[in-house]
Write a structure and sequence with these properties.
Helix content of chain B: 25-40%
Mean pLDDT of chain A: 85
Low-confidence stretches of chain A: none
Mean pLDDT of chain B: 88
Number of strands of chain A: 2
Distance between the termini of chain B: 63 Å
CATH architecture of the domain at 95-263 in chain A: Orthogonal Bundle
CATH superfamily of the domain at 95-263 in chain A: MetI-like
Shape of chain B: globular
Strand content of chain B: 15-25%
Order of helices and strands of chain A: HHHHEEHHHHHHHHH
Number of strands of chain B: 20
Strand order of the largest sheet of chain A: 1-2
Strand content of chain A: under 5%
CATH topology of the domain at 95-263 in chain A: MetI-like fold
Radius of gyration of chain B: 24 Å
Number of helices of chain A: 13
Structural class of chain B: alpha+beta
Oligomer: heterodimer
Largest sheet of chain B: 12 strands, mixed
Helix content of chain A: over 70%
Structural class of chain A: mainly alpha
């Protein structure tokens, strides 16, 4: 297993190289001039030209690419044009905010999704099953923007229980931060809950009709133990795959939720960077997210090996 | 592994697509920042019930997140609101925006050749205490330092007419211009040209953008990027002692959420409301909606050099084929704007209402005839470029319908986000594009930017408008500092421009603010600047 992990670690480098190169090319392919974006609509032709020179955009693309790769190799992600601050610092400030919202949401979604999925599977074909699956369908198809605004109207504007926006501040106590987290977390958890419950349901259904579960039942083991201990365990791999993707996705932030609740996370940072054609910031953010993706996917594979030792990646990649 | 990379790329692509669809560029940026205003338009004065009381913190929402508060580095309206509250300028526009009034300068004289401005400064102005000075007195040297710094470092060239300054004494300063330039005083009102202390600027270096110090009514206590800027009262403010204990600015990019936060009292003042948010604010009893006609023009600009619209007859035909009143009512269904006629907002002192009659009236039959005369009896295909905001999309759809129905012109609507839009619009390759413009009340900031040949290639004159007579008038208007004379020259320029049928100038948007009912003493200006404490204004919160 150790060897596998080592190989996977080495595979990270070429992946990141491809990501950096692709992002470099793609950002330059989007129409829109970073100098003009920074200076705004009123800028004169001369101002734009001067800014392009300051940004080094008048250099040939190849030399820009070369400079950028050397910079990255030294661990320097450059300076954001729009913020006038080092890219790495900006990302480092946003990631904790994003994770503060994302991890609790995923955890809630995982627990709720497993409970709903297992219950539905066990009661397949009953009213409860239909009800849960309809709810899951609604959850998956719910426009988050609309859901967020509705939650605010009910819980903030009419009932006055929860704040409308912002992140709260630790100086007002942990309670303030938690109060600010409730609505955005609910929004963020909606779709993953629905996804987890549907996957869990189908996966459990598959396993409880299998021979091993039938054998367990035949041995007279209590049904709840059969379901929660054995059936769930064999049904877990697809859930973990999705969980891995969801966790990795967390690092990219939640654009809509963060926008609605004015939550300063990665999502709004990246959208702002794209709007402003802030090349250094887009490239830096993509690289960090890509890194999160490859590392989490590697961890998922390791978890697979732990829960199911029969899975082997030797030579598989 | 391949799948993983593909998944990562797909996720990023989705991010980019989502951002392109969902990110509405703040109105201020789309419309070219706030610095606009109206002359005789009514500035709303709120009734102030009872005697003013001290205390409380006013929370203001900004449509986008302020990034850098260094005056020479700021680029957005939302940043200038904070800078303008922490710092002062030498001179200021009055509330009605009809004339320039004293600020840190008590008075000024202009030399006969229009190249030397001598300012007499107040001698009771102190900087807010900071890390590198303890609240010392402001002198002419500080003004010299700040203005020359802006001249050298401002990416936006906010003071490019300045050559150098000379501090004659602690309270007297002469600014020398390279050439006579009548908009110098207007340029001094920009938040980019506020007066800052050298020790703080140099002490903080690049971090001055998050540790701004000035002479204004409120001092910056903390600046948490993308979360809030917290300001506290400056007890030594020269104009008055502010009633408020402090002011907090928070970025809220979603307009509906800004109104929701107003309703719950989380914020007290929401700037830049538009669309449905205006309606909600108007109908909700707990919120006051303040509306003032802004210094804003929304327009459709025809390509002057290439394609069918290079022909003046085609341009006139298209203008005649569009019912502007109906179009504006359709786009701004909550009365957030008034139909316009000219490429200058009625609030600018260069506006000439007699020219409104020059705009061709809605006349589909006449339009058809003109188009046939121009050699297009069966119409043609036309591309319109717009940024992806709701108002612009509605407008383009109506424009498309008018042109199809009245002239059999097939309009293709090309929507993109702001960056891509501004590139095509400034390139001169768009058949037609639509955007809006807002800036100072001085006509220079509209007419020179949109119609002077030297602006070709910038977004303002992206369609290549070029007319020697117009250039001459616009240059001439910069040589005299007499506002009345300048207004006359701009009116002549405007008359020539209007007869060239450069585009359809269809709407003047309001400045819309939502205010919670406990905010008193607030005056709304047509340039959208929030003034909290000045010699005439002192905002307070009733209990």
């Amino acid at each position: 297993m150790f060897k596998t992990i080592l190989i996977r670690c080495l595979q990270i480098l070429p992946s990141l190289f491809v990501v950096v190169t692709l992002t470099f090319i793609l950002t330059r392919m989007i129409p829109g001039d970073p100098a003009r974006a920074v200076l705004g609509p009123q800028a004169s032709v001369q101002d734009v030209q001067k800014m392009r020179e300051t940004m080094g955009l008048d250099q040939p693309l190849v030399s820009q690419y070369k400079d950028y790769m050397i910079q990255i190799a030294k661990g320097d992600f450059g300076v954001s044009y729009s913020y006038n601050q080092p890219v790495l610092g900006l990302i480092a400030k946003r990631i904790p905010n994003t994770l503060l919202l994302a991890f609790p949401s995923i955890l809630i979604a995982l627990i709720a999704g497993l409970l709903i999925g297992v219950t539905s599977a066990v009661r397949q074909g009953t009213l409860v099953d239909y009800l849960f699956m309809i709810l899951a369908l609604v959850g998956v198809s719910m426009p988050i923007f609309w859901l967020g605004l509705m939650l605010v109207l009910v819980f903030s504007v009419h009932l006055g229980w929860l704040p409308v926006l912002g992140m709260g501040s630790m100086s007002s106590g942990i309670g303030d931060v938690i109060r600010h987290m409730v609505l955005p977390c609910f929004c963020l958890a909606t779709i993953p809950t629905a996804t987890f419950s549907r996957i869990t349901r189908s996966s459990i259904l598959e396993s409880i009709h299998g021979d091993s579960i039938r054998a367990l039942r035949a041995r007279g083991i209590r049904e709840s133990v059969v379901i929660w201990k054995y059936a769930l365990k064999s049904a877990l791999p697809p859930v973990i795959t999705v969980l891995g993707l969801q966790l990795a996705g967390c690092f990219a932030g939640a654009i809509l939720t963060e926008t609605i609740f004015a939550w300063p996370g990665m999502g709004t940072l990246i959208v702002g960077a794209i709007d402003n054609r802030d090349y250094a910031l887009i490239q830096g953010a993509v690289l960090v997210i890509a890194l999160a993706f490859v590392i989490i996917n590697m961890l998922v594979d390791v978890v697979y090996m732990i829960i199911n030792p029969n899975v082997s990646y030797e030579g598989g990649f | 592994m391949k799948k993983r990379i593909l998944a990562a790329i797909a996720a990023l692509a989705a991010t980019a697509v989502l951002s392109a669809c969902g990110s509405e560029k703040p109105a201020s940026t789309v419309a070219a920042t706030e610095k606009a205003s109206t002359a005789q338009e009514t500035a709303k004065e709120e009734k102030t019930p009872g005697e003013p009381v001290s205390g409380g913190v006013l929370t203001i929402s900004l449509s986008s997140s302020p990034k850098n508060l260094d005056p020479v580095k700021y680029t957005g309206t939302y940043e200038s609101q904070i800078i303008g509250t922490v710092c002062d300028t030498l001179v200021e526009y009055n509330t009605e925006l009809t004339e320039i009034q004293p600020g840190l300068a008590k008075s000024w004289k202009v030399s006969d050749d229009g190249r030397a401005y001598t300012f007499t400064l107040r001698d009771d102005v102190y900087f807010q205490p900071g890390k590198f000075q303890e609240g010392r007195k402001m002198t002419a040297e500080d003004v010299k330092y700040s203005l020359e710094r802006s001249r050298k470092l401002s990416a936006m060239n906010r003071l490019d007419m300045l050559d150098h300054c000379e501090a004659v004494s602690d309270t007297e300063l002469v600014c020398y211009l390279a050439e006579p330039n009548a908009v110098f005083l207007t340029a001094l009102t920009d938040a980019g040209n506020v007066i800052v202390p050298k020790e703080e600027v140099e002490g903080w270096g690049d971090d001055f953008g998050t540790h701004l110090v000035g002479t204004g009514p409120f001092a910056l206590e903390s600046f948490e990027l993308d979360q809030q800027a917290v300001l506290k009262r400056n007890d030594k403010y020269w104009a008055a002692k502010p009633y408020l204990d402090g002011v907090t600015f928070k970025p809220v990019s979603d307009g509906n959420q800004a109104v929701n936060a107003l309703r719950t009292g989380e914020i007290n003042l929401a700037t830049s409301l538009s669309g449905e948010a205006v309606k909600i604010a108007r109908e909700d009893q707990s919120v006051k909606l303040l509306e003032t006609p802004g210094l804003h023009v929304a327009y459709i600009y025809f390509n002057q050099k290439n394609g069918p619209t290079a022909d003046i007859k085609v341009r006139e035909a298209i203008i005649k084929a569009v019912n502007v009143d109906e179009l504006t009512a359709g786009v701004y269904q909550y009365n957030e704007a008034k139909p316009a006629s000219l490429p200058l907002p009625p609030g600018s002192w260069g506006y000439d209402s007699s020219l409104e009659a020059e705009k061709p009236a809605y006349d589909p039959e006449g339009a058809k005839k003109l188009l046939a005369e121009a050699g297009y009896p069966d119409g043609f295909d036309l591309n319109i470029y717009i940024s992806n905001t709701e108002a612009r999309i509605k407008m383009a759809t109506l424009f498309q319908a008018y042109l199809k129905q009245n002239l059999n012109i097939n309009v293709n609507i090309n929507t993109s986000e702001w960056g891509a839009f501004s590139e095509i619009a400034s390139s001169g390759k768009a058949d037609v594009f639509a955007m809006s413009w807002t800036w100072y009340p001085d006509p220079y900031f509209f007419l020179n930017k949109l119609f002077h040949s030297s602006s070709i290639g910038s977004l303002g004159n992206g369609q290549g408008f070029e007319n020697k007579e117009v250039d001459q008038y616009l240059d001439e208007a910069l040589l005299t500092t007499d506002q009345a004379k300048r207004a006359e020259i701009y009116k002549k320029a405007l008359a020539v421009i209007v007869k060239q049928y450069p585009g359809i100038f269809y709407a003047n948007e309001n400045v819309n603010w939502g205010v919670s009912s406990n905010v008193q003493g607030l005056t709304q200006r047509a340039d959208g600047k929030v003034k909290i404490c000045t010699p005439d204004i002192n905002v307070w919160l009733s209990k």
